[in-house]
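Service request form, structural biology core

Requester: graduate student, group of Dr. S.
Request type: structure prediction, single chain
Budget code: on file
Notes: please return the result as structure tokens.

Sequence provided:
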Amino acid sequence: MAQLRVTEKIYEKTRSPQEIKEGIFIVTKQALSFFPPVGTTFSLEVGEKKVETSIYSQDCTCRGPHKPHYHYFLDIAQIRELLPVDSKAILTISKIAEGEYHLSVD
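Core staff response, request fulfilled:
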């Protein structure tokens, strides 16, 4: 199971094997307030690379058709190759300023 820590300045997690296999980065509901509103563009720096990205939502009925809900994801299309494929790697997103974030890997 993926580890998770959310504070005002940090969103820290490991990615599950499913996230790695599917090339996605899940954002939990608890962490949504850490980021700008869904669909709002923000800067994310990963190493020497700085990209514009956003959080997006996806409709889901994984709990059955009578319990529709959303899952939330960080758009990692531009940085996918920079992320580790090890589910034990800890990914830390730090809020530098409003609309500016930095991702590091431990």
